[in-house]
Amino acid sequence: MHTIRSCHRALLAFALVFPLECLAHGDSNEFEGCRILLGGNPVRFSIRQPQFDPSVSYCAAVPKSGESVLEFRYEGVGQSTLKVEFELNKEPEGRTLFKQAGRPYPSGTASFTLHLVEPGDYLGHVAITDAGGNKIDSHVSFSVAKPRIPGSWKAQGVLGITVLAMLYLTYLSSATVQSLVRRLVRGTSG
Fold this sequence. Notes:
By secondary structure, the chain is an alpha+beta fold. The protein has helices at 2-23, 153-173, 175-189, and strands at 30-32, 35-38, 41-48, 57-58, 61-62, 66-74, 83-91, 95-104, 109-116, 120-129, 135-144.
């Protein structure tokens, strides 16, 4: 009985902590919040809408359409000398909305002001080119003014399995619950 209660507590802690951690991350190229890896180099990606709230930035879901400032900030040593090019497409049709040819950003921050007036999904393609002409690229997907269900299917699946495991352990540890389940099963099978 003590082991089952310990399992209950462990599963409850897991259910409360793990899904929240899963919900904190978005796309597969993100490795920490709004950071992407670009050839192994960390780059912070954010979208701001100063006309609504200048202090808030987004990375996966922008709540309103309108003027938006997209920023890429290099966090690696010496990355500010690299050439950066950027292209933004409206998905799923793949229509190019904006394209910036490669150029260096000595401050380490590339900033683009765009008018994202169409609700839906967008895909940003960012590429860096070093002094030797080697190009490394990555993609950033985000949505604008699109209702989103929080969490990924993976997080929801983990939560579902955890809840089922807790229900099963409750069934095993309680004679009252076992009796109730048996009565319900007999009542529906006849």
